[in-house]
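Task: sequence design from structure.
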């Protein structure tokens, strides 16, 4: 079941130089699953809307949050001019990019690039807060160290939860920062996730990135279809 609500922007958080989180006050937050998304509508001369992942976990009570890379689109420009107290319309929860919580610890892996990290942050935070015992490896690719959203969050979660491993992939080196250089490929997956045959893989992002990850997993690593869970960010 989905819900529609008029929400007030409670707080705006600068995650990177071009990524912001918008924390909303919706009163009575309806149940949603980690990894789901919502439709956000902004008031303008005509309705301007986007489908955006919920970046907080259901365990972070009393709020709902989305995170957006600020581009030159009409929606981004309108959103970027928003301020606390402004109203937006939302419809949620939507999507099935979620983790099965069947009570049995699982082994999973996330492949992510750029702003595709938003639902993954939600799922990982949920696992850590609930101490589900799920074994997680996240391979997260960005152009530079300054493009890494939620870096402090993932650093803290690794300290809190021993079964989380985060591997950063950068296109440009960062002195003193532990990472791999290049792009996500089959060799990196094999090296960083040697038990990849035992894991379910989740990945999401713009369609070209999703197709590239699917090719690596299904064609090069020959993983079973049921172990590949993906979601396209249409309109990215």
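Answer:
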């Amino acid at each position: 079941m989905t819900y529609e609500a008029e929400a007030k922007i409670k707080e705006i958080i600068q995650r990177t130089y071009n990524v912001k989180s918008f924390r909303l006050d919706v009163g009575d937050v309806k149940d949603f699953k980690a990894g789901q998304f919502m439709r956000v509508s902004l008031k303008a001369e005509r309705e301007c809307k986007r489908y955006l992942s919920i970046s907080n976990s259901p365990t972070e009570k009393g709020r709902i949050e989305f995170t957006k890379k600020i581009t030159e689109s009409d929606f981004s420009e309108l959103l970027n001019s928003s301020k606390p107290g402004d109203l937006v319309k939302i419809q949620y929860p939507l999507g099935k990019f979620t983790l099965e919580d069947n009570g049995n610890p699982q082994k999973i892996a996330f492949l992510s690039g750029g702003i595709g990290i938003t639902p993954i942050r939600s799922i990982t935070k949920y696992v850590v807060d609930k101490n589900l015992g799920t074994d997680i490896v996240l391979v997260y690719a960005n152009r530079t160290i300054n493009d890494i959203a939620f870096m402090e969050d993932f650093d803290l979660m690794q300290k809190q939860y021993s079964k989380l491993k985060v591997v950063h992939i950068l296109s440009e080196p960062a002195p003193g920062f532990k990472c791999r250089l290049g792009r996500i490929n089959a060799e990196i997956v094999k090296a960083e996730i040697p038990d990849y045959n035992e894991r379910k893989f989740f990945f999401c992002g713009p369609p070209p990135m999703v197709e590239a990850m699917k090719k690596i997993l299904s064609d090069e690593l020959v993983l079973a279809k049921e172990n590949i869970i993906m979601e396209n960010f249409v309109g990215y």
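The chain has a mean pLDDT of 93.
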